[in-house]
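A student in our group prepared the protein record below, which I am reviewing. Here is the record exactly as it was handed to me.
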Amino acid sequence: MLRRQTLDLCERSLTSRLAARRALHASCTRGQSSTSSSTPGEHNPSSSLSSNGSSSAFPDSRASAGGEGTTHFGYQDVPLSSKVDLVRGVFSSVASSYDVMNDAMSVGVHRLWKDHFVAELNPRGGIKCLDVAGGTGDIGLRLLDHAREKHSDRQTQVTLLDINPSMLRAGQRRLAKTMYWNTDQLRFALGNAEDLRLHLDSPPPKSPLSAFAASPNKPKLPPLEHLEIEDESVDLYTIAFGIRNCTHIDKVLKEAHRVLKPGGVFACLEFGKVNVPGLSDLYRAYSHAVLPSLGAVLASDRASYQYLVESIERFPTQPDFARMVAQAGFHLPGSPQAERWGLPAYPEQRSWDGDESVNGAWEDLSFGIATIWKGMKL
């Protein structure tokens, strides 16, 4: 039985990887006719990163001569219309082993980052939380547990929203074992972070005995639903290790601003940039040499984890992303308005590019390997 399960897992992983690679090959073939002639994987000075490694204000896409814009998928330049499917292929491939790989990649430190992230937000008082790119439920479960354990709050509600059905299924299987299952405190929804009103249809189960079927060890999972997130309907918007995979980060931020109530908080936990001389080079070497190999050993999927490493490097610097949050309409921590409403600056964080307007706007964790950004809608 164990051998059969192992073979099945390998077969599913291989199928997902092949599909993702076929999509990547097709998208790159299409992109060659509409983009400037750059070698795949080669840094292009006209792309989102400038020659000194910093990012522009909105680094996700650029226009091509053929009309359709291009964006980055790791180090590849691909047509804008292809990135969603490519990213979906990556996370469908890694969904079943995502938590195990996070533990291996960070030696368990990602759990401490997430604990700190939620503890700082301190959810309570029956608020409505939207956890975008909620995936396997790591943040959503922590939000509910914190409200209950620290404040005896069983009224706070969390909606886990993700564009990837496989990741949401993994979250459903995890949360089905908790006291929040089948209560008003927890919902799962298919959705696109760039347009939270866009309707996404739930894919049918692959077979009558797959996702929706119950077994002694697997609870029956309800169909995934679409929820249209209304204007000013959310108190807390969280997104953890997900925003760097979005095609248009500026659209994600504007949608977050739209759905938050006045006084609501946007909170993002994402990989940042290590800004310690020597350590940054060491971390980059470790990321490229070790992390994809761990993916190959633990998940039989080197390619997906190579993309994850590359996507981290393509994400904006801490000051650049703070400026993007401000440009979306949010007040940054430490600004007079945010300070007045209880969002103080992080005193140890100063912008290394000389822009004092973003001083104290983020919190680096583990020397900047991970970073927390916040913004308040007023």
User: Anything to note?
Assistant: The longest strand covers residues 260-271.
